[in-house]
Amino acid sequence: MPDRWRDNHDNGAGRLLVLAGGGFWYFKRSLTSEQAAAVPEPAPIPVVATTVTSGNVPIFLTGVGTVIAYNTDLVRSQIQGQITQITFVEGQTVKAGDLLAQIDPRPYQAEIEQLTANLARDNAQLENAQANLSRYTQLGNKGYATPQLIQTQQAQVAQLQSAVKADQAQIDEAKIQLSYTRLTSPIPGVTGVRQIDVGNIIHPTDPNGLVVVTQIEPISLIFTLPESYLPRIQEEMAKGPLKVIAYSQDNKIKLDEGKLLLVDNEIVQTTGSIQLKAEFPNAAHRLWPGQLVNVNLLLETRKDGLTIAASAVQQGQNGSYVYVVTPDKTALLRSVKVGQISQGQALIDDGLKANETVVVDGQYRLQQGSRVKELHGKAATEADLQSSVQKAIP
To answer: What is the pTM of this model?
Structure first.
């Protein structure tokens, strides 16, 4: 075969290969473009969002405390005697001075009558001795009575005067003993379980006494906070009384509002905490001695504070963050600084502005730049429920 023909044949084959490769590349590129155009964009992720609000925000310190009675008294008898009457019902609210029980007063009344008779006898003798002294003094002035007789009569008068005073003192003591037959409440409060029944003999040495009366209006509360808060608490106390709010253990029921009375004079070294005491009016009797409650100590009220629902705040490796919804419905991750979380609201110190929109539910599906669709009304409620179920599934 001639070399010229072979060269032409090779060149023709090469051209065919180039044209075939170019056609395949064009066909593949066209197909890829068509496939890419056929793939739809991801659907927006449904979320529940809210607006950052601005207003006066109370700054609380939270702790746990125990309710203690303002006063607690064990009613005891100061004398021995038989209980003839019980005048209270267990759990009854009583006032100071109310009669709780009566001890048989007859032995003490009889003693008073006897001592009164002794007083009358000594008074009669004193009057007679004073009359004799007056006569002896007149006779002595005329020289008919000796000085010794007058002195003796004066001593008798003084002796009888002392006897009268002693009789009166004994009567006063007996009257005090008689008053002890009435067992009364020393304080206003609520009675507890009765420890003795009618007909029994009560003694001053009985360990359980008659009943315990507990004053619950007002009532006190002891709670603890970390010692690091002490300087700020002292600073705010110097400005005026601080409000203290007591809640149930689940924080759902507000029990009462009171005021801070004092900060204990030493720090508990074992726990690094300080003890504080608050007082509550407790008019509704929602606070009860021995009750464990949650405590919010109001330090100050911050003006123009920014708040969002606490569920909007997420935790990551770099700290707290939220998803902000931009005007074009895109989710942007933004780091925030949380001042406090109280009653379902988070106070934002840095990272947000008023009226910005943040995601409060549905964050688990979001990424930086995700397109979102805000849900409202019933749809938002259903999304909240579904999100709660999905979060609960491990």
So the answer is: 0.67
Q: Using CA atoms, how far apart are residues 314 and 312, in angstroms rounded to an integer? A: 6
Element at 217 (helix H, strand E): strand 211-226
Question: What does the pLDDT look like over 30-49, one tens digit per residue?
Answer: 545 555 455 567 788 899 99
Instruction: List b or e across 64-101, with b for residues whose CB sees 16 or more CB atoms inside 10 angstroms.
Output: ebebbbbeebebbbebebebeebebeeeeebeeeeebb
Distance CA 349, CA 353 (A): 10
| Domain 62-69+217-301, architecture per CATH | Beta Barrel (2.40)
pLDDT tens by residue, 62-114 = 999 999 999 999 999 999 999 999 999 999 999 999 999 999 999 999 999 99
Structural domain 77-104+181-209, CATH architecture:
Beta Barrel (2.40)
Residue 375 phi/psi, 5-degree rounding, is -100, 150
* CA 371 remoteness from chain centre: 46
Q: Three-state DSSP class for 39?
A: coil
Give the pLDDT band (50/70/90) at residue 190. Answer: very high
CATH T-level topology, domain 46-59+304-388: 2.40.420
Question: Other CB atoms closer than 10 Å to residue 18's CB: what's the count?
Answer: 10
Tell me how crowded residue 164 is: count the other CB atoms within 10 A of its CB. Answer: 18
Helix (H), strand (E) counts: the chain: 5, 20
Residue burial 233-253, b: 16+ Cβ < 10 Å; e: rest: beebeeeeebbbbbbeeeeee
Give the Cα separation of 327 and 325 in Å (integer). 7
| Average pLDDT along the chain | 86
Please state, in angstroms and rounded to a whole number, the distance separating the CA atoms of residues 296 and 235: 17
Owner of token pair 């539910």: 361
Look at residue 137 and give its three-state secondary structure: helix
- Within the chain, where are the H helices? 3-38, 106-141, 147-179, 230-237, 377-392
Q: What is the mean pLDDT of residues 283-298?
A: 94
Strand order of the β-sheet with 201-202 is: 182-184, 99-103, 81-86, 201-202
CATH fold for the domain made of 106-179? Helix Hairpins (1.10.287)
**Which sequence spans correspond to the domains of the chain?**
46-59+304-388, 62-69+217-301, 77-104+181-209, 106-179
Taking CA atoms, 9 is separated from 3, 6, 119, 287, in Å, by 10, 5, 161, 107
User: Is there a contact between 49 and 322 (Cβ–Cβ < 8 Å)?
Assistant: no
